[in-house]
Automatic annotation (TrEMBL):
This is Uncharacterized protein. It comes from Neolewinella aquimaris. Pfam families: PorP_SprF (PF11751). The lineage of its organism: Bacteria, Pseudomonadati, Bacteroidota, Saprospiria, Saprospirales. Keywords: Signal. Residues 1-20 form the signal peptide. It comes from the Bacteria.
Length: 395
């Protein structure tokens, strides 16, 4: 019975399908390293996250079946390494868009190094984290699902007088898809934790992360070495995307060894003429339940689109003390100034965390994140002057 709950969650996320706007998650929590590789492995655990997402699926105007926007699935593996000087992660994701089935498949890895900024401190610790991510990907499309302008007749529509589909003169440059491309992500962050606040040692801890990252940075390659994902042979390089983020976990109340904490969050992204801002926060009870509200503001050359989402997270440490299961749900409340009617964006993630580092266990180094199952600090733990988020606190 103890293993039934995580098994059902795993099947739900791997077997289910969803629809998404792009390859990134709508929400920051659970996908931190997707936004910034410096966040890789900063949770004190070996973690496997699986997720699906539904975003921008349009609805039929005649009341019929809804039309798919994107189908999205992602699997992410991360491992904190308390015995070494770095942490690492691996990921794979796949998105399929619309009737033409524009499919993007990507896989890759990330590594992050933590540099201690404070040493031998009993109540404060901070790290400079530097991260690098490499992604290998390809885009494919099913041209048979597309309609081209020369197929449209002003008299017979998409068919000729004999009822046959009108042909097109379009000849794709490469019917098998785009070239395989490699993209790079660079990130940096400051991660810190404070144990002593308002003269209450250990009762009001706080952790925080402030980071900046750039994806597809053109400064790493020459013009002749640009990577392209064009399906028709164009030489357009992948566009740079900048991400700025700040988030924190602040304990505001403690009663009978149970903690209430708030989690403010702000994320800003920019890619050419498109900019995106997400801000909000959540209130959590003892790392078992969190409810948050987030406002999304997207600006482009065509206008602005705002919407709001509610986010709920539930998690628990299993009786063995070394396994934790977290389930995250996100749902849109309203769509702001979006011009077209769309279904409510929806996201489901499941994270399975393990309290031992597999790599450190194999090498004979320090591998236990749980410190016997009951770490002293609710918010964070340290190893070799490196700070990790503590998800193992139990009453």
């Amino acid at each position: 019975m103890n293993h039934l709950f995580p098994t059902v969650l795993l099947l739900l996320c791997v077997g289910g399908s969803a629809y998404a706007q792009d390859v990134l998650a709508q929400h920051f929590r659970g996908h931190e390293s997707t936004y910034n590789p410096a966040f890789t492995g900063q949770v004190g655990a070996t973690r496997v996250t699986v997720g699906t997402r539904s975003q921008w699926g349009s609805a039929s105007g005649s009341g019929g079946a809804s039309v798919a926007g994107y189908e999205s699935r992602v699997v992410n593996y991360e491992e904190g390494l308390p015995c070494l000087f770095f942490d690492y992660g691996l990921f794979a994701r796949r998105n399929s868009q619309g009737h033409g089935q524009l499919t993007t498949s990507e896989m890759g890895g990330r590594v992050a190094v933590a540099i201690p900024l404070t040493k031998n401190s009993t109540d404060r610790v901070s790290n400079l984290r530097l991260g690098l991510g490499l992604t290998r990907g390809q885009r494919r499309i099913d041209y048979s699902g597309l309609i081209f302008l020369d197929q449209l007749s002003d008299v017979t529509g998409l068919i000729d007088w004999n009822g046959n589909p009108n042909p097109t003169g379009f000849v794709p440059a490469d019917r098998t898809g785009s070239p395989w491309y490699t993209s790079t992500s660079l990130g940096a962050s400051i991660k810190g934790g404070m144990l002593n606040r308002i003269q209450r040692i250990g009762d009001r801890p706080i952790t925080y992360d402030v980071g900046v990252a750039v994806h597809n940075w053109s400064g790493l390659v020459s013009k002749d070495g640009r990577q392209t994902a064009s399906l028709i042979g164009l030489d357009g390089g992948l566009r740079e995307r900048w991400v700025f983020s700040g988030n924190a976990s602040v304990v505001v109340a403690k009663k009978n060894k149970r903690y209430w904490s708030v989690h403010p969050l702000i994320i800003a992204q920019r890619q050419q003429q498109f900019s995106y801002l997400e801000l909000g926060g959540g209130l959590s009870w003892n790392r078992n339940f969190e409810l948050g509200l987030y406002q999304h503001i997207a600006n482009s050359s065509e206008g602005k689109a705002n919407w709001m989402t509610v986010r709920a997270e539930m998690g628990t440490v299993l009786p063995d003390g070394y396994t934790r299961v977290d389930l995250g749900l996100g749902w849109s409340l309203q769509y702001g100034s979006l011009k077209n009617y769309v279904r409510a964006p929806f996201e489901l993630t499941a994270t399975f965390s393990f309290g031992k580092s597999i790599t450190c266990l194999a090498t004979g180094g320090t591998n236990d994140f749980t410190s016997g199952g009951r770490p002293a600090c609710y918010s964070f733990g340290t190893s070799r002057n490196r700070i990790y988020d503590n998800i193992w606190y139990q009453n």
